[in-house]
């Protein structure tokens, strides 16, 4: 079916891509950690599969014989080379690697459990030398959707429902699109990136959320945002600059701005902070971490601070440096000396007889004030000193002596807090999307586009911009996306044509758009394509540009309103 193309031309008032489009990530390289998530470097690994296993040594393209289903395959590294054992017998030795291991069924890492079940993975397993040449990394190379299927139900409870899970799916997809943390892998499988537990953790409702957000990303200035998220808001989310940039203003993350959920009163004093945190505010009041408190005796807290100040000092986050040679004692006061607009502590002053120490950055503050060996849920808190007691320092011995007579000086009694209590709210860094907030907004009837646009300022929901150019192989340029008429009213194709391409036919599903138009530089085409879409997965396809446009390209994306 052919349809005449009505072109609506817009001048460059739109935010446009000024160079080339970012390619949509179709595969993800995930660094797999050990059982305790403490390392990504290994000397051995055991694998199995319910189907045959194939191993390829990529250094010389050697295919190792197909290994029978349910065989136990063990790979060990010795002196930087791989040795392969099959059912306990050494079959191949001194392989250079990297090794690529595949099967038509899931691959199981035999000695690794995730959520109490054997860890299984779709895609391939790659073993590649680590930075330590005597060890290797285990890398799951997997398609994007399979990766997300293993992330979303582990980052958000599936009981939060479909719309909240859709918001989580897009945030997780945006996160991995921007990620590259190592030469060997894009992300890891722990909270250091996103929690990824493989195929045994897939759940039907989270799989559905991923399917029904296919191809859709949160963009700012046509680029995928860094979609930070966290568990629970105290009632106000935070600026990226405040939490991660020490309060200095930057233009790095303009979409990560503070959000006042149910109050617009600025927290300008410690009195305001106390009033705010002793009441319930915002969308997340049903979270167990919306409000919390912890208490230490003074001696307990002195010991906690002694241990943790040393660690944070080594990271340069304590002034003056605390080396522990003179143990912290006589704790008098803990004061918050700098806060964000949401009341997050950015600087904390510890006052004791043994000295005064300033702790910088919210994560360091949370790590210094540990309870039961766990850092504070957030740095949104105030400190109360409870009761008074006298230190046992009523007398001291003068080191000077005259003959057999020693002089004793009476010290004046001094009052010290008996215990300290921290009262706080929220769980996590507080920047971006609150997961409990997404849950509660969804419960109140909000669809996932509304949820995302509340937490990420000024974004659009769109496919990733894709370039169309000439190639000699007739390779077509396609983008696929899921259109949900309950979530969106309209969809537009936006074509940027800054280089004067005259002919660029394309298809939307079965509809062909073959008309051409001359578009002047610095202009955009924006066309409503809602009528050509179906509920479900849709495809927009551009053929290669004609050879007369060898040095030119156009860029297109689909935006949803």
Rg on CA atoms, Å: 29 Å
Structural class: alpha+beta
> Biggest sheet, in brief?
8 strands, antiparallel
Low-confidence stretches: 1-20, 394-412
What does this structure look like?
Strands 1, 15, 16, 28, 29, 31, 34 and 36 form an eight-stranded antiparallel sheet that branches. Strands 5-4-9-12-13-2-14 form a seven-stranded mixed sheet. Strands 8-7-6-3-10-11 form a six-stranded antiparallel sheet, with no helix packed on it. Mean pLDDT is 90; it is low at 1-20 and 394-412. Helix 3 runs antiparallel to helix 9 (435-443). A hairpin with a 6-residue loop joins strand 12 (124-129) and strand 13. It is globular. The chain starts with 8 loop residues before the first strand and ends with a strand. The protein is 16% helix and 36% strand. It is an alpha+beta fold and 561 residues long.
Output the keywords.
561 residues, alpha+beta, 8-stranded antiparallel sheet, 7-stranded mixed sheet, 16% helix
Short description:
This protein is α+β, with helices and mostly antiparallel strands and about 550 residues long.
Record the SSE blueprint.
Blueprint: E1 9-11, E2 27-32, E3 44-49, E4 53-57, E5 62-67, E6 73-78, E7 81-86, E8 89-95, E9 99-103, E10 107-114, E11 117-121, E12 124-129, E13 136-143, H1 144-149, H2 152-155, H3 162-177, E14 187-188, H4 204-211, E15 217-220, E16 223-224, E17 229-230, H5 240-244, H6 270-277, E18 292-297, H7 298-314, E19 318-319, E20 331-339, E21 345-352, E22 355-360, H8 362-368, E23 381-390, E24 395-402, E25 405-410, E26 415-424, E27 433-434, H9 435-443, H10 448-455, E28 460-462, E29 466-469, E30 477-483, E31 491-496, E32 506-508, E33 511-513, E34 523-528, E35 536-542, E36 553-560
């Amino acid at each position: 079916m052919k349809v005449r193309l009505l072109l609506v031309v817009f001048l460059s008032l739109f935010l446009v891509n000024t160079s080339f489009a970012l390619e949509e990530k179709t595969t993800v390289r995930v660094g797999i950690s050990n059982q305790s998530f403490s390392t990504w470097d290994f000397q051995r690994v055991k694998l199995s599969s319910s189907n045959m296993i194939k191993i390829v040594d990529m250094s010389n393209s050697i295919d190792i014989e197909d290994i029978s289903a349910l065989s136990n395959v063990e790979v060990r590294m010795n002196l930087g080379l791989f040795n392969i054992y099959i059912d306990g017998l050494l079959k191949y030795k001194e392989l250079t690697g990297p090794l690529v291991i595949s099967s038509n069924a899931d691959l199981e890492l035999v000695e690794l459990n995730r959520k109490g079940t054997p860890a299984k993975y779709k895609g391939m397993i790659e073993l590649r030398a680590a930075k330590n040449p005597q060890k290797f990394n285990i890398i799951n190379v997997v398609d994007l959707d399979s990766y997300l299927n293993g992330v979303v139900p582990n980052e958000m409870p599936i009981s939060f429902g479909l719309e909240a899970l859709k918001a989580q799916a897009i945030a997780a997809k945006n996160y991995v699109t921007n990620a590259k943390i190592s030469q060997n892998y894009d992300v890891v499988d722990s909270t250091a990136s996103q929690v990824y537990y493989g195929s045994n953790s897939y759940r039907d409702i989270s799989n559905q959320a991923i399917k029904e957000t296919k191809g859709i990303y949160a963009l700012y200035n046509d680029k995928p945002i860094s979609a930070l998220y966290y568990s629970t808001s105290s009632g106000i989310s935070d600026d990226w600059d405040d939490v991660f940039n020490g309060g200095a203003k930057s233009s790095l993350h303009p979409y990560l701005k503070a959000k006042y959920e149910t109050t617009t009163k600025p927290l300008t004093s410690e009195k305001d902070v106390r009033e705010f945190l002793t009441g319930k505010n915002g969308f997340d009041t049903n979270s167990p971490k919306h409000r919390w408190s912890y208490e230490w005796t003074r001696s307990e807290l002195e010991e906690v601070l002694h241990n943790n100040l040393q660690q944070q000092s080594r990271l340069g986050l304590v002034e003056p440096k605390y080396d522990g040679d003179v143990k912290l004692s006589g704790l008098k006061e803990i004061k918050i000396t700098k806060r964000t607009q949401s009341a997050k502590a950015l600087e904390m002053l510890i006052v004791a007889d043994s000295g005064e120490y300033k702790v910088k950055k919210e994560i360091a503050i949370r790590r210094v004030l540990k309870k039961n060996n766990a850092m504070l849920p957030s740095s949104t808190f105030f400190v109360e000193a409870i009761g008074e007691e006298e230190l046992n320092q009523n007398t001291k011995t003068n080191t000077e002596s005259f003959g057999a007579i020693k002089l004793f000086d009476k010290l004046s009694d001094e009052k010290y807090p008996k215990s300290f209590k921290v009262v706080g709210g929220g769980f996590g860094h507080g920047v971006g999307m609150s997961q409990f907030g997404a849950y509660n907004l969804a419960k109140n009837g909000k669809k996932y586009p509304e949820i995302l646009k509340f937490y990420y300022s000024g974004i659009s929901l769109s496919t990733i911009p894709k370039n169309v150019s000439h190639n000699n192989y007739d390779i077509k340029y396609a983008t696929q996306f899921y259109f949900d008429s309950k979530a969106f009213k309209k969809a537009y194709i936006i074509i940027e044509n800054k280089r004067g391409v005259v002919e660029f036919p394309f298809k939307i599903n079965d509809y062909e758009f073959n008309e051409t138009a001359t578009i002047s530089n610095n202009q955009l085409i924006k066309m409503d394509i809602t009528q050509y879409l179906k509920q479900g997965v849709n495809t927009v396809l551009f053929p290669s540009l004609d050879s007369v446009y060898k040095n030119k390209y156009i860029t297109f994306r689909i935006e949803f309103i």
